[in-house]
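Researcher: I'm preparing a figure for a lab meeting and need a structural model of a single chain. I don't have an experimental structure, so a prediction will have to do for now. The sequence is pasted below. Please return the structure as tokens so I can convert it later.
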Amino acid sequence: MKNKKYAVALQVQNDAQSAISTYHLLTSNTINREDLTVFEARKDDNGEIGYFQFLSLDINLLYTGELNVADTLTVGRTVRDNSMNTSSYSDLRKYGFTPYYEVVKKAGEDKGNYFTVENGVIKTNGQISSVGHNCTFIVSVYDKKDGYKLAEKELTVSSVEKIATTKTYTKSETHELTLESKDYRFKFDMNDVYNTLGMSSQTFWNAGYSSEYYIWDADRSEYVQSSSSNGVISAGSVYENNEKILYVDVKNILTKDQLGKYKVVFKIGNTGAEVVYEVKVVYPEVTLIKDNDYWKDGYMINAGKLVGSNYVMSGDLRRGYKNKDLDLVFETVAGETRTDFTLINNVLTYTGDCNDEEGNRINISTIDPVDVMVFVLINGQKIDNGTKIQVKFADPLKNITLKKDAKFETTDKKSPADKLQLNSAINLVSIAGEKVIENGTMNATIAGYYNAQAAKFEVSEEDAAKGASVNATTGEFTWQNDGVALTANKTINVKVTVTYTWGVAVGTIPVTVKSNL
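Model: Understood. Here is the structure written out token by token.
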């Protein structure tokens, strides 16, 4: 009969056993193998296979898992109606057609060797270190009978521990999403969807669920369209881990007036059925944690420096808090009038007169504290009404310290005298951490902010009388006793000072003179 298919087999019987040959496809018309296509094969609840044309495929694979390509793909042909419209896909395996899959890594991929492939089975290396990596494989499909190459496709596999931005919920919940630092995907429990509607998965997907869905803004009683919401909340379907799912995406770019409760309604084709989910989007509650190194007597203490004719708080005001992961912004207090400062990009500048009536530089620590509001931002949006703080200018320079390995020793004797270079040991930093002097070398630019002068060295009159001396500007130290030998080791404390506009930074360099006796 024309166009009918026959499955035939040869059966052989002997005294011990019988054997049946492999089935082979016979039709009245020869199948043109050029028309064969590779499909993704997916089973429904009844075990029936549905087919989706395989153009390219992305798969998330648990880092401890494996994927047999033969379980994912199949070979078939497109069946068309009289108008040449695609009506269905025919799987040729049930007629005995046997494809063979050759799977290799794409050249240049997987430099860390996170994936292996053998006999068409892809595996990760089973280590958590593989998470976040992916590899593209070239899948070549052959007719096993004669080695004819039917198709070649790319398959990209990603190693995952879990889908970090996916949350699975049931219909009965309201899902509260706290926006922090990333986009979120709500993945809905598909078994809950099927059970709620009383449908099999096959019936559900065949009903054309996605022909209509909409998002209802419950707080503002209006529909949300992707075009009007700039895509901050959207819904649809996607394949994930070889499963088709419903999802709602919420992007972390919601403005403050877009926060609130949304209803996402999926309409199931023309069945009259709906699946409704609620998503509530909120900003997080944030507690600011003070960095006590920069607070004193209730004020945020910031070092000031002279830049041109203005005092500027050195650095960003954010250093007053330990919340380094937060986006903080500082603003002037609404309704308050101060004409002696500006606040731009979190940097406070004193614009008042920096000199007194006699022309002397005003001590920066005497400037009145400034009222400032600090806000937490998420994607440029203020999440609360802010916190009022007071910021106070402070003397900028800390005391002089020595580098960790600094150790100065000499031996008691009259002549010739040892000379020690003390200058290389000193360090001086500002409250903001700027290195004014590092290992004896002064940074002229930073020192200029504070009008910091070169370090001065001196020894006490008593030590000088015994034989100690130091060059005041170079820091070169000499010990030459007064003719009376030391009977025990002696420590000489060399005082070092740096004078700047509003004060003096002080340090001490100990020098040990060892007795020869």
